[in-house]
Structures are given as structure tokens and as C-alpha cells.
Amino acid sequence: MTKGLALVNKYRVLIIFAALCLAAGILSDSFLTVNNLLNVVRQVSITAIIAAGMTLIILIAGIDLSVGSVLAFTGAIAAGMITANLPLVVVLPVTLLIGLLFGLINGLFVTRWGIPSFITTLALMVIARGMTLVYTKGYPVVVSNDAFRFIGNGKIAGVPLPIIIMLAVFALMYWVLRCTSFGRYIYAIGGNEEAARLSGIPVNTIKLAVFGIGGLLSALSAIIYTSRLMSAQPTAGTGIELDAIAAVIIGGTSLAGGRGGIVGTLFGALIMGILDNVLNLMNVSPFYQSIAKGLVILLAVLVDSKFSKIKTR
Amino acid sequence: MDTIALKMEGICKHFPGVKALDRVDIEVRKGEILALLGENGAGKSTLMKVLAGVHQPDAGSIYINGSKAVIQGPRSSQALGISIIYQEFNLVPNLSVAENIFLGREPRRVRGVIDWKRLHQQAQAVMERVGLKHVSPKTLVSELGIAEQQLVEIAKAISYASEIIIMDEPTAVLNGEDAKQLLRIMLELKKQGMAIIFITHRLEEVEQIADRISVLRDGKYIGSANAGEVTRDDIVKMMVGRDITDLYPERNEKLGQPVLTVEHLTVKGELHDINLTVREGEILGIGGLMGSGSTQLSKALFGLYPNMQGTITVNGQTRIRSPREAIDAGIALVSDDRKGEGLVLIMSVFENLLLPSYRRISAGGTLMQRAKQTSIVEKWVDLLKIKVHDPAVEAGTLSGGNQQKVVLGKWLQMNPKVLILNEPTRGIDVGAKAEIYQLMKTLTEQGLAIVMISSEMPELLGMSHRIAVMHEGRITGEMPIQEATQEKIFLYATGGK
User: Fewer CB atoms inside 10 A, N or C side of chain A?
Assistant: First the structure.
């Protein structure tokens, strides 16, 4: 492979991202305004934070379908606690803890009983949704609390807080994956679980932790989401697992595990968000938007498999 | 009857960095059994893959029944009447014997409805030819034993109207009685006019049924002979070809205290009452045929059977119930399955070398500086002469010998006291072999204790200080190298006394 092509290959997500921004700027006057861009990224942050956890899970060749339901349940619990006048210093940690717990349950079924993560998390997806409906009786839980509102709607130095949280999560995950043994073990397990085990890596502990992180980040996303709307919807997060998986895949992480990274996921999520935004700005019907998104996913994966073929040749 | 069924002439095949086949000539006549012999890595399996259409030769010609043939792929190989029976069977366990034999070619009535009656009749006919009379065609393959499954494979080959059958170590997975039965069936097929190429390591089987032998060594064609006209010694000489002393360094002479002591090690269904001691600087060779339990022993020593009974003591530490505990006790395992268990092929050489060490070179989970990591990696790349232009390339791109060096490097960095090598030179060319042997010697001089499991007799005899032989999960014999002979090892390996 020539050097130029290698470069294109390495930064293909960035190139798609740049091309999309350019096209969006040409197609719509209002796209390249500070307000609109901040708006897009703030919206993306909810999916992106979940996609960050999903990246780790997909890197170990797993999948987590329960993230959307966990988001709904933890969001409802958070809203419930706030209406019960509990202070945020209690509400936030407890919400995160419940998310972590859901993730650990997923991980436990996968590691302890060897059940494929697709099945485990599918079951938990249905269960957590049911729990949400039971808890909310099917009605939104409306909250009013100014400190809580700030999380989803506040700004620091002009930057919306959800964006700052999202960037912090991605920076942390970037560091974890690159500079800690835990991060390198994730790649090793995804690449060859048996070789990893025989290298003395505590495979099950790592997997458990990865699923735990996935659940925790779902809860973090739930906090932002609930705060944005100032209400917890029983149907919140429906289908968000697919958006998150799409972001990870568009970002170049392999579903087979072991290859990819967190930076790609951030851009993958942004690509999905910008696509939504520009189609909205152009007044394209949501029905067509869905088709367009699907096509972009196909395109991204096609480019990916083309390049990975070149690489192995 | 004396017509040549298959003739291969001047076959060459290169892989990056390796000459796998170098002007190989093979021919087999109708109604003849040709034994294809050679050490591991001699090129037998590459040659087979050429016949199977998996690899295209770089040079040379293939003639089938006298006319020139080009084998483009597995289908064209089949169409030319070639069938290959691999060591791993290609059977669908949950389908019946008849369905397996005719998979994809079931006799049909109109519109894709299977004609079961005809299917069973036709299956019955081929099954009789391979001695499967006592089995109903409706039996599920999963209900059959391994020997019968192999016969199903052979029946399948016959049903393709194959005239040339290649069998890759078919008796390796069978016990004595089943192996004899298989040899009888091979003779029967021969009588029916089939040309059979028989790959085996068991020379007594060659004596029993082969008409001729052909020998490969390091990808080169060494020669052919009529089976009746050569002795076992002649054959071994052709296979090994060089003086063993050329390849194997002198043994380390300073043996120290026992480092590894194994007492009454038992793993239910796998290992029975294993007792071993290995001293500092000593190489204990472990021999045995496939399925002897030596691989299980290596895994037990590495903590992979948490339910084992008995004791393993390394440096006074006795609790070894997981790879991590084994590593902490100072044990390292170089598995025989380099690609499946030794390396993460899609990770870089750099990372593979550091994988077990990460927890030692990190503080609170944060890895040490990149520069320090690089210096460790460079040390091993230099020391082990790993041929890689940049350690950042994926380990999967390296040749077998260099991959093995990476596996060795990752363990030596852990500074082990006991190194378990399972088939340390399998699938490695002679040059890299010699380097690995030299390395083993250097390591023993530094006091490392080595347990070397090997199915290559010359390697066992050339490297070990002592040899223990396993059969069906037990150690059936142990001897110092001065008393070891191929015959003795073979006798113990087959469970004889």
C-alpha cells in the first residue's frame, strides 16, 4: 500500500467527517453557526457517552443492547429521587451506581455463565424497560430542581456542560485505553482471548469491568438526558443502542473485537448527529432521515472492509 | 494396473521468507499405497494443499492419469478425483451418516425434495466398502466414535468417485485396534484400484502397508524407494538427513537443585498420578504420541486445571491454580498452538512482547514511559534476532520462526524459573530451529529448568538430559539420555512394557 493511501486509511473517519461538514455547510446556511454547532454536539453527547462505553465492550468482542433501557430506568430513578427531595450529592452517585450494577449483571452472565453478551444484554434490555414502566406506571416523571437543570442546560465559559462532560469521558477513555494495562488488556482479550488468558491476564475481571463501565456511562447519559428534558420518559433511550453501535462501527472499531479506538467513536457519533441536523435544517422528512442514516452506516462499513482488505494483502 | 494415477513434477512453492516446496517430484500408481514421509515442517501439508487446490504452485506440473491438470481450487481438485482426509474431520455432527456422505449432492425427487430411500441405499453401498456395515446410514454422526467418523470421511471420499485418496496422519487419533482396522480398509481400497497417499509418522505402519515411500525434508524432495528395500534406519536417515549433532548444541553440564517437583498430579480423565522433578539447568524431554496427555500436562503445570489433585512445587510455592499464579511462581508456557494461544496476531510485535509484563511495568495501572517499553522490546528483538523491520507491525505478519521467538521473548522478559515448551519448533524452518536450540542451551546455562514436550524424536534425543514418555495420561517410562533410544521411546509411547 502506498504511503498516501495508508494515510487516507488511518484518518478515514476524519475525512468522512470533514467531507460531511463541508457538504452540510454548502447545503445549509445555518449549519456553520456557533449556536447550531454547539446545539448539535450537545445533542450528540448523550449518544456519544453511551458509545464510549460501547466501544470498550465491542473491543472485547461483546455487545450491549441494554444501554437504552438502563438509561430509561436510571433516569426514572434519578427523577424519582429528586422529586423525593433527596440532595444531588445522593442522587447522582446512586444513579451511577445503579447503572454500574446493571453493567456488572451483564458482565456476570457473560463471564460466569458464558452466555453470549448479545443474549444477556437483550434480556436485560427487556427487563430494564419493564422495570422502568413498573416504576413510572407509564407516565413521565417531571422534576424541578435548578441545580439538576444546570447539568443538561448550563454552560461553563459558553460551552454547554454536556459537551464538557462528554469530552472529559472521551479523554479519560482515551487515556485508559492507551496508557493503562487495563486498556491494553482490553485489546488483547478482543484480539485473542485464549492468548490473553495464557499471558496471565485476568480475563473475566477485565470483561466484568468493561460491562460495568458500559452500564455506568449509560447512567451518566441518563442524568444528562433527564436534566435536558427535566423529566424522565418511560420510553427514553429507545433505539439508542443502535445509534451507539453505529457510531462505534462508523468510527472504525471492528465488531470482531481487538481493533479500533475511542477517537473514531467520537467522530462516528458526530457524523450521525450532523447528518440528523443537516437533514433537519433542510426540512427533510424524518422518514427519509432514517433511510439516509442507514445508507451512511452501510457506506462507512463498506469503506472499512475495503480498506481492511487492502491492509491484509 | 500399473498406470500412474498422479504425478507431480518439479513442484515449487514460496511463502514470504520460506521456501515451502522446492522441486518436489511425487508419483503414485493405481492400486498402490505411497507413504509420504518427513519431519514436521518438511512440506507434506503444503504439498497436500497444492493437491487440494488451496495453494497454487509457483512452478511444476501435475499429471492425472497421464494428462496435465491444473488444480484451481477445492472444487477442481474434487472434479479431478482427488480426495483428502484431514486430521480434523469435516463432518456435521447433527446430521446422519448418509446426509454427511452426500451433503450438497443428495439424490432428489422433483424440486429439491430429498429422495431418502435412494440416499440411504447409496450411502449403504459406500459404507460397506469402508467396513461400516454395522452402522445404519440414519445414525447421527455425533453418536459415532472417532474411528467410525473417520470411516465416514473415507466413505464420503469414495462417493465422489475419487481415485486418489490422501490421508493426513489418519492413525494418529486412533487407538491400536482401530488403527489396525483402518490399515486393513486401506489395503482393501488399494485392491479396488485406488491410489493412496498415506502421511504418517509411524514407521511400522509404513512397513505394514506401504508399497513405496517418498521422503521430503525442509521442502526438498529427498527420494523414493520401494518399501521392501529400505530399513527403518534408512528411512530415518532420509528424513532427518543431517547428523543430529550439527543441529543440537552440547548439553549444559552444571545441573543444580530441583526447581520443579510434581507429585501425584491427577486431572480426572486426562492425567493420572504424574511424578516429575526438573533441576536447574536441566532439560526434561517429554515424548508421546498424539493424545498421550503431554499437552494436558503442560496446561496442568500452568494452572489451567484448577480442579487438579496432587502438588506442583516451584521454588517452594505450591499453589498453582491459574495462569497468573503459575507465572508468579516462575513458570512460563510456550504453547504448541502459537496462533491460537501464544500470540494476539492482530496486535503488534511490540505489545505481544510486553503482554505478560504489563502489570510489572505499570504503577497503579498506568504503564511506564513509552521509551522504557521500547528499550525492553528492542532488547528482545536484538537478543532473539527477531526479523522484523518495525516492532509496530502485527505479529500475524511474521514467519513461524519469528512468531515463536516473540512468544519466547515475552516469557523470558518475565524471568521464569521453569520454561515449559510444547513443540517448540513445530512448523519452523531449520535455521530458526537451530537458533532456538542454541537459545535453550544458553538459558539452561543460566540455570533455567526446561520441560520440553516434543513429538520429534531427533529433537527429544538431541536436546534432553532426561526423557519421560507418556501414554494415555500416564508416564510410562523415564530414562536418562544415555539410555534413550528411538525404539525404547516408541515402546513406552505405545503403552508397551
Answer: C
Please give the Cα distance from A115 to A108 (Å, whole number): 9
Joined grid coordinates for residue B445? 546455562
Asked whether the beta carbons of residue B340 and residue A194 sit closer than 8 angstroms, the reply is yes
| Cβ pair A24, A278 in contact under 8 A | yes
Domain that holds residue A205: 28-312
Coil, strand or helix: which one is B319?
Answer: coil
Query: Radius of gyration (Cα) for chain A, nearest Å?
Result: 20
Interface ipTM: 0.83
Distance (Å) of CA B15 to CA B11, B49, B114, B168, B429: 14, 13, 44, 22, 12
What is the pLDDT, as a whole number, of residue A209? 97
Final residue belonging to a domain, choices B207, B242, B277: B242
pLDDT tens digits for range B337-395: 888 899 999 999 999 999 999 988 888 788 888 888 999 999 999 999 888 888 989 99
Do residues B255 and B465 lie in contact, with contact meaning Cβ atoms separated by under 8 Å? Answer: yes
What is the sign of the dihedral through the CA atoms of B382, B384, B390 and B392?
A: negative
Which residues are paired to B197 by β-bridges?
B34, B166
Q: Which of B242, B271, B289 is the last residue of a domain?
A: B242
The full length of chain B comes to 497
pLDDT of residue B456: 81
CA distance B67 to B48: 19
Question: Between β-strands B283-287 and B309-314, what pairing exists: parallel, antiparallel or unpaired?
Answer: unpaired
pLDDT confidence of residue A304:
67
pLDDT value of residue B1: 44
Distance from CA of B219 to the nearest CA of A (A): 25
Question: Is A9 inside any structural domain?
Answer: no
**Are residues A198 and B333, on separate chains, in Cβ contact within 8 Å?**
yes
Chain B contact present for A116, CB below 8 A: no
B288 and B235 within one domain: no
Residue B388 structural domain: 245-493
Worst-scoring range by mean pLDDT, A9-13, A35-39, A253-257?
Answer: A9-13
Q: Which residue has the higher pLDDT, A275 or B174?
A: A275
| Closest Cβ–Cβ partner in A181, A197, A199 for B367 | A181
Q: Could you state, in chain order, the average pLDDT of each consecutive group of 10 residues for chain B (497 residues)?
A: 82 80 91 86 83 89 89 87 85 91 85 87 91 90 88 89 88 77 90 90 84 89 88 79 69 91 92 94 90 91 92 84 92 91 93 92 83 91 88 86 92 94 81 87 95 89 94 92 88 75
- Give the pLDDT band of residue A205 (cuts 50, 70, 90): very high
How close B49 comes to chain A (CA, Å)? 20
Residue A38 near residue A288 (C-beta atoms within 8 A): no
Cβ-based contacts under 8 A for chains A and B: 70
Is residue B310 located within the same domain as residue B364? Answer: yes
Q: What is the pLDDT of residue A2?
A: 58
Residue A294 makes CB contacts below 8 A (sequence gap 6+) with: none
The rounded percent of chain A whose pLDDT value lies above 90 is: 74
Residue B280 DSSP SS3:
coil
Nearest-CA distance B435 → chain A (Å): 24
Count of CB atoms situated within 10 Å of the CB of A73 = 32
Grid coordinates belonging to B2 = 500399473
pTM here is 0.79
- CATH code of the domain in which B279 resides: 3.40.50.300
User: What's the farthest any 2 CA atoms get from each other in chain B?
Assistant: 78
Averaged pLDDT, A220-243:
95
Q: In one letter, which amino acid is B63?
A: Y
B-interface mutation test, from A198, A205, A213, most B Cβ less than 10 A away: A198
Q: Are residues B357 and B427 in the same domain?
A: yes
Task: Give the whole-angstrom CA distance, residue B126 versus residue B123.
Answer: 5
Q: Cα A37 from chain centroid?
A: 19
- Are residues A224 and A162 in contact, defined by beta-carbon separation less than 8 angstroms? yes
